[in-house]
Amino acid sequence: MFRRITQFCKQLFAEGEQAESTETFQQSVPEGTGLSLSVTPRNAHTISRKNISENALKVLYRLNKAGYQAFLVGGGVRDLLLGMEPKDFDVVTDATPEDIKKLFRNCRIVGRRFRLAHIVFGRDVIEVATFRGHHGDEDGDKISKANAEGRLLRDNVYGGIDEDAERRDFTVNALYYDISDYSIRSYGGGMEDLNEGVLRLIGDPDTRYREDPVRMIRAVRFATKLGMRIEDATAAPIRKLAPLLKDIPAARMYEEVLKLFFAGKAQANYQMMQDYQLFAPIFPLIAETMADSPKGHCARMTQLVMRGTDQRVIEDKPVTPSFFYAALLWYPLKSRAEEIAHESGLSLYDAYFAAMGDVLERQCQTIAIPKRFSVPARDIWQLQLRFERSQGTRAFKLMENPKFRAAYDLLLLRAEIEGGSLQKSAQWWQSFVEAPEEARGDIARGSGSSKNAAPRNRNRRVRRRPRSEGAPAGSGSGSEA
Ligand code: ATP
Ligand code: MG
């Protein structure tokens, strides 16, 4: 109780004091750190506690009351200052994960590379990190560890706020909202960069990208999300260092790819990643297929998938990694299947099945697509093989498949790209799918004269799988991907 009253008085005092000053002031930096610091008092910035999540505020206040420093940091502060709604609120403190665990019953300690505390409020999780310090470089430092390329494998050295700021990626992410007096501490000119729309890496860009190559795709993601320009020195080493992305653990890359393409900026991110040569190291098969494809089907598919994903996000429709990967990898699958059929003499139909495993395995080396998405992606592919042969009364059966809708969407994309007989097949399906339920029977029977019609006579033996020509709808003719 006493502590609460003291805290309350302190806050009143701080508020009174801050009311006087609306000037941002520069402060010299403590020895050994190279970043300038400026402090913007509460009355000189636009962040209001009303816009901060209640749970984040609870965490900040409880840490502060227990005598620790506590700040909102990173994207939460940055986005609020830009008038955007933050995706999440991250907290940073001088309390260690163990200290934090003592304060919160609902706390889990997570992470190896970075040990963090997660404070769990039902479905909402507030991530609380301890200030990072400088990582020792040589002599057997066990808490910070880098590989031969300079990539940090572990980073659990604790420090103060100034060192923590140096360990952050961009200046606009080194913004700290101080819960003790509601001021904002900004390092390395973060506040000015934010106002000018400049993304600037903290420290030497070459070293910082080598430490963590994911920062290169973060640069792209923030540039498109925030409408900012990547400052020249920050942009300069990207093309040269892009191949380092190959070595990022595939599970982490999976998460990064979701953030890149499932947040409404897929087209812009894809374009910028291509410009900076960041796409090929993560999607090597797609890049190879694009390079081998004079008709540009694979490139066109990638553009359409990105556009469609953005559209769905804008319309608040669900987006799923199974469709995303099935569609992006369709032409790599097609060319691998044709290659297998050519080399092995397998029917094209069987070759497709063999190719599915190859393609997924290759893609999963850089992006660990979880089974719950790669299995349905295979279903979407398999349905492509059945579309043409199921026109007619078999169409009803196909429609019952849980992945029918996604597979049908992929068929439409393929038809848009390739035209020809595939376009005809897609039109048949479109008329069937869009027809009122009671009219579908007629449509199914109406196609009876075509070679695709299902046999009327139920007793007639149906050859389920064509022996050699069993390619998916429209793919029989060319080997173009
Ligand atoms: P958003 O949540 O909108 O994607 P963010 O900036 O909050 O953006 P997070 O991944 O939530 O990004 O990380 C929170 C903060 O942690 C960042 O603002 C940055 O200060 C720091 N950070 C995250 N990833 C890195 C990294 N790879 N290298 C250095 N600092 C990082
Ligand atoms: Mg964040």
TrEMBL record:
The EC number(s) this enzyme carries: 2.7.7.19
Instruction: Tell me the keywords, alphabetical order.
Output: ATP-binding, mRNA processing, Nucleotide-binding, Nucleotidyltransferase, RNA-binding, Transcription, Transferase
The record places domain Poly A polymerase head at 70-200
The residue ranges of the tRNA nucleotidyltransferase/poly(A) polymerase RNA and SrmB- binding domain are 227-288
Q: Which residues form the active site?
A: D88, D90, D169
Pfam families found in the cross-reference section: PolyA_pol, PolyA_pol_arg_C, PolyA_pol_RNAbd
Q: Where is the composition biased (Basic residues)?
A: 457-466
EC class, as a word, reads transferase
Region of interest (Disordered), residue spans: 439-481
Which HAMAP family is this protein grouped with?
PolyA_pol
The family classification in the record reads: Belongs to the tRNA nucleotidyltransferase/poly(A) polymerase family.
Q: What is this protein called?
A: Poly(A) polymerase I
At the highest ranks, the source species' classification is: Bacteria, Pseudomonadati, Pseudomonadota, Gammaproteobacteria, Alteromonadales
